[in-house]
Backbone:
């Protein structure tokens, strides 16, 4: 029998009506002859409410206790969904992360899944149960509850799908799939039918909030097919899978933007070996992801070192680097959080060198100044001021004609320079 | 080093201000040189809010999922209290029921604790941590979360105190201790300084909500001293312990009343062997506690069988007995939930046969009709109409002069008949 893993995010289970609708959908998958495992996030605003509660007590709660608290959010959702499914006449059992055998590393608040012992889930599936698993959470080797960080339920779902050798991992969300740009800010944005793991990873990492990057990595590593679709309708969404060049629809898949960015500048560091190592090793130890990095020589002996982190990490990153300033012999440290990153993602750009130029042209013609540029094989990102982000997305989306209807199987995005 | 177990109920942790006050009290005990284990209930109305949430989905959720849901209430409290204690500069760690090694039988919603594996708690205490444990919950041998029923956190606290060989188990509540009657309905009620396990058990079982009866049984079995006291002030409360006759203050300790009672009457059952067995075995299987039982012969061949259960169990008890009616050959079944049980409790009544008569006289003089009488060695209970409960408590309390100031070490309650 096929195993299907379905994941429902917070907006899909935000109240009892939505939970009943999800139950209906889950039962349909079961009635179609599948064994069904459902992964759920905390209800809508539950996480924020819990955070407000703990912040009344301390502005800076310890990570272990934060995980203890936040993990209750999914535990509430799984019990409610199990009962909703039982009300529809199916048998269902809810499992917390630790009951589902989700083992993580010891780190709190952004732990990675180390392994999944799926024995209990398999037992319940064999008994004919629909199994509801709390996403976002696991247990470390000390027996403490850990959480996987923002969007962690996606990773829970994909990891469970892999462990259970599921046929597919369905990620239900409040949009119809992955779009060529954020449809909330650009109505011309078009749904992408099929996208490769590599492109999805770049899009997820550069601001498309629809999937956690780690979930895409996991799926790519094990070849698990993901279907990103809406929990509000039955339309087909976006399939994330290995895509051959022949299947590819466009050279450029989409434009993303990310407002959750802060730019830190270490001012006038002596230009000598070991500076970058010192800073980024300290940040890595604190598990702070550094994204764009630019080092620009100001004079012969000093340089400005500029890098970006997510806004969530900005305060901690500032503290860490501030402590290093005397040791580095730098002049100062500056933080700017009114920046945005806009990116173009597309596997086709490897063989089309004009992509970068077209993007820069679109930004230039809109009067948008580029502060930092970074690239990967299939992505080009520009850091700009936050208030111009929407204009930038529109200009780039239009320049690459991503709003155009697609008919042929493959074609260049546009007349590349 | 002495181990002290402190238990705080829902009203003591109902908001962040109260949680901070509890943290302060816990730290004081730690600073006095004790190893401290704290057991907490869910915050104030949390349990009711969670119940409202699940009842939006189903009027009759399955017990396993109900436990999965309700156990989040204490998990929230423990994390908040741990953070509040950490903010005061002490180290603390929160543990769920399963992390604290609380093993229960498989039954959901009113499981009994089978054993406690206190290894993790001891490890944390040895590291100098204040340990915060979620009350009311445990884990069964399947690895599922169970809860202990109404007031279960008291039992968690006493069981942990026994497992850890604590010096004392302090139960913090919103009243100053155990009273000769409920001080909310009788202002003359007097705080009892010392009470025996036996009397406390009778009082708890007959309506004094201050302690779960099972907790008292546990304490009596292992000789664990309980101190029931207020979380709002530092006054000494009531010590529950083995009491010698010499220490006893009064022959009668208190008057209790219980409005959480429903009276079921099986009408005109044939008067033959096996009837009571059939009914009460069926109820026992469903874990419904039957309290008072009266069988009164109506005619030579038929009898009315009358018994009381808690209101929470009334609907289920009615269903169970209704199904037995044809088999029993009874005429019908009737339920009356506008009844109350008033009781007099006192170890001294064993040797003072006038206690019952004085109680009946007090009720009679207040024009209160007695529907059912039941007695134990140290308790006499009368079932009356609910609306007369307060008058009954006042009359009995006054008849036994429980409001009188006590000076001498021992004396009869009053001039017994």
Residues:
């Amino acid at each position: 029998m096929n195993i299907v893993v379905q994941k429902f995010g917070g907006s899909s289970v935000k109240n009892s009506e939505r939970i009943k609708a999800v139950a209906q959908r889950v039962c349909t998958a079961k009635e179609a002859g599948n064994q069904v495992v459902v992964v759920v996030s905390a209800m809508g605003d539950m996480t924020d409410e819990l955070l407000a509660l703990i912040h009344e007590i301390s502005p800076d709660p310890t990570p272990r206790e934060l995980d203890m608290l936040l993990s209750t959010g999914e535990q509430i959702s799984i019990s409610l969904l199990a009962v909703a499914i039982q009300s529809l006449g199916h048998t269902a059992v809810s499992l917390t992360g630790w009951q589902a055998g989700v083992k993580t590393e010891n780190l709190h608040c952004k732990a990675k899944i180390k392994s999944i012992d799926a024995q209990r889930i398999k037992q319940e599936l064999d008994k004919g149960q629909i199994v509801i698993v709390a996403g976002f959470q696991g247990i470390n080797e000390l027996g403490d509850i850990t959480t996987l960080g923002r969007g962690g339920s996606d990773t829970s779902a994909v990891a469970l799908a892999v462990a259970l050798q599921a046929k597919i991992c369905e990620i239900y969300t409040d949009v119809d799939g992955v779009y060529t740009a954020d449809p909330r800010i650009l109505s011309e944005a078009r749904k992408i039918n099929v996208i490769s793991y590599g492109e999805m990873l770049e899009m997820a990492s550069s601001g498309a909030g629809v999937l956690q990057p780690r979930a895409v990595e996991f799926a790519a590593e094990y070849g698990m097919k993901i279907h990103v679709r809406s929990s509000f309708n039955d339309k087909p969404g976006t399939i994330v899978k290995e895509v051959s060049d022949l299947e590819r629809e466009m050279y450029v898949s989409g434009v993303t933007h990310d407002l959750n960015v802060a730019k830190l500048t270490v001012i006038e560091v002596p230009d000598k070996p070991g500076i970058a190592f010192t800073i980024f090793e300290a940040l890595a130890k604190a598990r702070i992801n550094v994204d764009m990095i630019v080092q620009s020589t100001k004079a012969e002996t000093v340089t400005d070192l500029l890098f970006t982190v997510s806004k969530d990490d900005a305060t901690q990153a500032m503290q860490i680097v501030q402590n290093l300033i005397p040791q580095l012999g730098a002049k100062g440290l500056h933080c700017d959080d009114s920046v945005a990153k806009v990116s173009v993602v597309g596997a086709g750009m490897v063989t089309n060198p004009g992509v970068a130029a077209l993007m820069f042209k679109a930004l230039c013609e809109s009067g948008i100044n580029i502060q930092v540029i970074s690239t990967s094989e299939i992505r080009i990102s520009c850091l700009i001021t936050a208030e111009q982000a929407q204009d930038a997305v529109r200009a780039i989306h239009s320049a690459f004609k991503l709003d155009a209807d697609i008919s042929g199987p493959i074609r260049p995005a546009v007349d590349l320079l």
